[in-house]
Every structure is written in C-alpha cells, then in structure tokens.
UniProtKB/TrEMBL annotation:
<keyword id="KW-0326">Glycosidase</keyword>
<dbReference type="InterPro" id="IPR023186">
    <property type="entry name" value="IUNH"/>
</dbReference>
<dbReference type="GO" id="GO:0016787">
    <property type="term" value="F:hydrolase activity"/>
</dbReference>
<dbReference type="Pfam" id="PF01156">
    <property type="entry name" value="IU_nuc_hydro"/>
</dbReference>
<keyword id="KW-0378">Hydrolase</keyword>
<dbReference type="InterPro" id="IPR036452">
    <property type="entry name" value="Ribo_hydro-like"/>
</dbReference>
<feature type="domain" description="Inosine/uridine-preferring nucleoside hydrolase">
    <location>
        <begin position="6"/>
        <end position="284"/>
    </location>
</feature>
<protein>
    <submittedName>
        <fullName>Ribonucleoside hydrolase RihC</fullName>
    </submittedName>
</protein>
<dbReference type="InterPro" id="IPR001910">
    <property type="entry name" value="Inosine/uridine_hydrolase_dom"/>
</dbReference>
Length: 303
C-alpha cells in the first residue's frame, strides 16, 4: 500500500474533526503534524480542539499552534455554525498545555518539509494564513511539497457572502499567495459538499460503527451548515475522501484567482475554466454516492 505523508493545517471546527479523525487513523496516511490557524473560532479554541482530538485518539502526532489572525483582514469567525467551543456536542477528555508542541506551526512545517525523504501533501482545511506565511518566508520548501489539497472557494455562490466561501473570505490575501505559488493545487469548494450531502439518515447509520462514529454523530448534531433540514455538509472531510479515492469525483482544470478589492465580492474565487494556464484542479461533484462508501470504509479504521 502506498502511504502518503501529509500535514493537516486546520481550524477545528466540526467538519475539520471528521477530516482529522480519518487522517489520523487511516493506514494510507502518515500524518506528520497538525497545525492550527485562526478561523471557525479563535486560535486558542482551534488549538484546544486539535488537542482534544489528539487526546481522543491517544495520538502522538504533534500539534503546533499557528497564526492567530489573518495577514491583513479583520478577524471573522463561524461560531453560529460550529458552536461556542467550535466542537460542541461531545464530552472530550481533558487536555493539558503539555500536549501542545512549542514550535510555531510555520517553523514546524518548514523543518518537517525540509527533512522529509519524499514530498509531503499539505491538506489545508482552514484559512490559508499559515501556508501563505510558510511559502513567502521559506520558498525553499516548495520543492518538498507534493501538492496542496485545500477546502475553500466556490465556482459560483459563496456561503459567507453571496460570492465568497468562508475559508477564503477569512484571509483572501493568503489565498492569493497560495493559488499563485506554482504548486499543484486541488480546490475542494462548496460545489462538491452542496452535491455530496451527508443526510441525517446516513449520519445515524454510522453512529454505532465505533467510538469515532458516535463522537462524529454527536458533534454533527450541533453543526448548523446551510440546508441543515436536509442533512449536513461536511466540507473538510472531502479533502481526505478525495485523496483516498480521486476516481469518485468529477474534476476540471481551471485558473483560480482571488478577488481582493471588490466591495461586494472580496474573497470570491474567480474560476476560469477556459484559461490556457490553469493553476488548479477544481473538484466539482461526486460520482454517484461513492463518497459515502469511501467515508464508511475510512471510518472503520478509527477506534
């Protein structure tokens, strides 16, 4: 089996918790570290939530705290969607400060990338602040990055403004740096999760799979993504499902640029499918409901 070395950069968040759980337990991934960023909730809480998951899985994967605010933007959060703590709904074991690695996320990523024997895939499921700082400060790491698979953006409508998706809107300048880094980028945006709902029946179905299934089921009940009456949109988990099974999704190459100046459009991902010079693979839609099988199969590896 091919094992992919990965780093997860994250702002947990309920959907982040699903992605982290699968990545920590799946034998196809070698998770080098989890780095945290301000996003769904503030950096203190996103870091605490990453540590709760580390403790839940008794994992020795290091957690490194990263950027506490966007490059230029004012701070925005998503407390109405994820609850006050960012991961309401489940009683996690207590965490302690000593569970946190002392090095800043950006320094830790740099060191891990430069020392890795093979190129590392970065899975970015929060605002792109840490990744932009990493690429701008230490450009020498780029040849050690295999690709960046990110959750963010949309080819059409947004979810925080009419045109902007939350992770990009939080730090559009950082996103612009990352999309123009010259690295292979896969964008998993709102288009996919809108078509690949986790219905409430599906969520009930995996509740009794194992402890992780129960934990995810319980926190999903506190997750107020749009269209909650029909199901939950677990955006971030699709980064993992895509890496496990790219053939389960429809993709198209495009040039993606970030709108930085527009009064009504700031943070919009402007996706040009006709460009001669694409910088990105955009994951558009699921093929059948294969993603459900990929998810259940991955969940079986968890405790």
């Amino acid at each position: 089996m091919m094992v992919t070395p990965i780093i997860i950069d994250t702002d947990p968040g309920i959907d982040d918790a699903a992605a982290i759980s699968l990545a920590l337990c799946h034998p196809e991934f070698d998770l080098k570290m989890i780095t945290t960023v301000n996003g769904n909730v503030g950096i203190e809480k996103t870091t605490a939530n990453a540590l709760k998951l580390k403790r839940f899985f008794n994992s020795d994967v290091p957690v490194h705290r990263g950027a506490s605010r966007p490059l230029l933007n004012e701070i925005v959060d998503a407390i109405p969607v994820h609850g006050e703590s960012g991961m309401d709904g489940y009683e996690f074991p207590p965490i302690s400060e000593k569970d946190l690695a002392s090095t800043h996320a950006v320094e830790a990523m740099k060191t891990a990338l430069l020392n890795s024997e093979e190129p590392v895939t970065i899975i970015a499921i929060g605002p792109l602040t840490n990744i932009a700082i990493l690429l701008s400060t230490y450009p020498e790491v780029t040849k050690h990055i295999k690709e960046i698979v990110l959750m963010g953006g949309s080819t059409g409508r947004g979810n925080v403004t009419p045109l902007a998706e939350f992770n990009i809107y939080c730090d559009p300048e950082a996103a612009q740096v990352v999309f123009n880094s010259g690295l292979p980028i896969t964008m998993i945006g709102l288009d996919l999760a809108r078509e690949a709902m986790f219905t409430h029946d599906f969520v009930k179905k995996f509740k009794n799979t194992n402890e992780t299934g129960l934990m995810l089921h319980d926190i999903f009940q506190h997750y107020r993504s749009e269209d909650f009456e029909y199901g939950v949109k677990i955006y971030d988990v699709f980064t993992i499902l895509y890496l496990l099974s790219p053939q389960a999704f429809n993709v198209i190459e495009a040039d993606v640029q970030i709108e930085l100046d527009g009064r009504y459009t700031k943070g919009a991902t402007v996706v040009d499918f006709k460009s001669q010079y694409p910088n990105c693979t955009v994951v558009l839609s699921p093929i059948n409901n294969m993603y459900e099988e990929v998810f259940l199969e991955a969940l079986n590896y968890c405790k």
